[in-house]
Design brief:
Elements (H helix, E strand, L loop, with lengths): L1 H41 L19 E6 L5 H19 L3 E5 L5 H8 L6 E5 L2 H4 L7 H12 L9 H12 L12 E4 L5 E2 L7 H7 L4 E3 L2 E3 L8 H11 L1 H4 L10 H4 E2 L4 E2 L2 E3 L4 E4 H5 L1 H13 L1 H4 L4 H12 L5 E3 L5 E3 L2 E3 L27 H9 L1
Parallel strand pairs: 1-2, 1-4, 2-3, 6-12
Antiparallel strand pairs: 4-11, 5-13, 6-11, 7-10, 8-9, 13-14
Helix pairs in contact: 6-14, 8-12
This protein binds guanosine-5'-triphosphate and magnesium ion.
């Protein structure tokens, strides 16, 4: 009986062994099938590796942030509907809406109806939007009139200048942003062309990314004639800040510098789309930089945009591998589109790859970004 029992135990054991081996083999085949297409693109800058480690299951402290006027309700509804459909119906990240005026009941109701995510609406106070005491408003008005003669967009707009100063130095300090570590900036009347089926904020965190963009553009130099010199002066007068920052070789300094650092090459990341770390802007180094620029007056006497201000700071303060080009987030703002061109995106994106702006010879700075990464 014991022998029979021993025999049948042995045959059961060998049966389990062969089932185990078959399962292991199957797992191996499946894993290599899954991994190989991902690996193929790991080293390709244009194709994102969107797998994230599962290091933490804690919820991400992240939100969408929107500065917008009541009059832009239809335009921002159009954007939010696309964001929900393409990404957020799966992830439910909250929204923070900011305005220099009170949002109307209609605005609040129509926006809230578009999402099941939490939505907060806030007013920006005078300290973050008005003229600081050190600005000579008469001089600012004369300078606006002068720039307007050159046909530069928003040359004579006061509100545009308040907006750029707010986006450069204050949005991340608004109390409604306090609970968050990362943000995705959105704007009215833009298009999001692709389905995003992974958590971009977790991707940023798990991969040590601090600044994400998808369009790199050239600035009108007439809007920033003294910005570069002001940055150089800041660097000279703040050695304690410079000591904390990566060396020019480790940073993306060459994305913005030309003539051996003597001048600005006009390249910047378009900030109307930004997925970034709030800690970058909340750091002592950035706050000192912003205060220095603010005191110099260029937000009002010239027309310094938040895009060059952010981009020069990020290029100076982050290491190369802390940047991320969101190739997979197809996007249109005004007449310019980033559309991923690789075939793997065709069933996820509605944009036409022929419209992709990345390699526009006159206006795009994407090639300069890639060169700066390599240098
Ligand atoms: N509340 C408020 N929002 C503003 C004001 N000016 C601009 N904004 C918002 O700030 C963001 C940037 O403004 P835009 O006018 O789009 O600036 P831009 O992207 O440089 O210019 P465009 O090429 O015309 O889109 C948008 O989300 C606007 O809705 C303002 O005076 N008040
Ligand atoms: Mg815009």
């Amino acid at each position: 009986m014991f022998t029979r029992l021993g025999l049948s135990l042995r045959s059961i054991r060998s049966k389990w062994l062969s089932i185990g081996c078959t399962l292991l083999g199957l797992m191996f085949v499946l894993t290599s099938l899954y991994i190989s297409p991902v690996n193929k693109y790991l080293h390709n800058l244009d194709t994102v590796k969107t797998t994230t480690t599962t290091s933490s299951s804690e919820p991400m402290r992240a939100c969408f942030v929107v500065l917008v006027r009541n009059s832009e309700l239809q335009g921002i509804k159009n954007t939010v509907i696309q964001i929900e459909q393409r990404f957020n119906k799966q992830f439910h990240y909250p929204y923070v809406f900011l305005n220099d005026d009170y949002f109307t009941e209609q605005f609040i109701q129509e926006i809230t109806a578009l999402t099941t995510a939490q939505v907060n609406f806030g007013k920006v106070d005078q300290q973050m939007w008005g003229y600081p005491s050190f600005i000579n408003q008469t001089h600012a008005a004369l300078q606006r009139a002068e720039l307007a003669t050159q046909g530069i967009p928003y040359a004579d707009s006061e509100s545009y200048r308040h907006m750029c100063r707010f986006q450069s130095g204050f949005f991340f300090r608004h109390p409604l942003l306090d609970p968050y570590d990362y943000y995705w900036r959105i704007e009215p009347d833009v298009d999001y062309h692709c389905d995003i089926d992974y958590d971009v904020f977790r991707f940023m965190k798990d991969n040590g990314k601090k600044y994400g963009f998808n369009i790199a553009f050239r600035e009108f130099l007439a809007t920033v004639p003294t910005l570069w010199q002001t940055v150089l002066d800041f660097k000279k007068s703040h050695p304690e800040v410079m000591k904390q920052l990566p060396s020019p070789e480790d940073s993306l300094w060459n994305f913005v510098a030309s003539d051996d650092g003597l001048s600005y090459n006009s390249c910047h990341f378009w900030t109307n789309f930004e997925i970034a770390s709030l800690d970058l802007w909340r750091s002592n180094e950035y706050l000192k930089y912003f205060n220095y620029l603010d005191r110099a007056g260029g937000f009002f006497y010239e027309r310094w945009g938040d895009a060059p201000v952010h981009s020069i700071a990020a290029a100076m303060m982050l290491k190369k591998d802390e940047f991320h080009f969101f190739n997979d987030i197809g996007y249109r703002h005004t007449a310019y589109t980033h559309c991923p061109t690789e075939p793997i995106y065709r069933d996820k994106c509605s944009c036409n790859p022929a419209d992709n702006f990345d390699y526009d010879p006159g206006l795009s700075c994407y090639s300069i970004f890639k060169d700066a990464l390599r240098r």
